[in-house]
């Protein structure tokens, strides 16, 4: 999920999130840094073991989720990039391409 508009403190959002999560599922979230809105999240079965690592970049929002089940590792990267014309902080497409390429080059070395 992208554009979750959830606050950094998940507990502030717990009731609204818990109301929409199906039984047997859980939700992991990385809030937008420094501003309201934005944020990325992942809804998944509670039976799965998942570790979330926030990814620190300037030009997009991202979370790295590593799910382990039955000896299999599945890596899911959730990315949200706001269209550059809406950016007021000078972040451009070149920075996005550079940071996204760097992210992918690091991910290829990781398990999953």
Descriptive overview:
The chain has 112 residues and is an alpha+beta fold. The chain has one domain (10-107). Helix content is 23%, strand content 32%. The strands form 2 sheets. Strands 3-4-5 form a 3-stranded antiparallel β-sheet, with no helix packed on it. Strands 1-2 form a two-stranded antiparallel sheet. The longest helix has 15 residues, at 93-107. The model has no long low-confidence stretch (mean pLDDT 80).
Q: What are the main properties of this structure?
A:
two-stranded antiparallel sheet, about 110 residues, alpha+beta, 3-stranded antiparallel sheet
Strand content: 25-35%
Instruction: Give helix % range.
Output: 10-25%
Which stretches are low in confidence, meaning pLDDT under 50 for 5 or more residues running? Answer: none
The number of helical elements comes to 2
On the 0 to 100 scale, the average pLDDT is: 80
Order of helices and strands: HEEEEEH
What distance separates the N and C termini? Answer: 21 Å
**In what order do the strands lie side by side in the largest sheet?**
3-4-5
Total beta strand runs = 5
């Amino acid at each position: 999920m992208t554009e979750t508009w959830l606050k950094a403190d998940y507990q502030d959002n717990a009731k609204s999130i818990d109301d929409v999560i199906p039984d047997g599922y859980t939700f992991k979230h990385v809030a937008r840094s420094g501003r309201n809105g934005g944020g990325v999240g992942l809804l998944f079965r509670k039976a799965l073991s998942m570790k979330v690592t926030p990814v620190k970049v300037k030009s997009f929002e991202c979370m790295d989720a590593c799910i382990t089940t039955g000896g299999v590792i599945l890596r899911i990267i959730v990315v949200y990039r706001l269209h550059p014309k809406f950016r007021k902080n000078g972040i451009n497409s070149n920075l996005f391409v550079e940071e996204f390429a760097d992210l992918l080059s690091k991910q290829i070395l990781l398990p999953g």
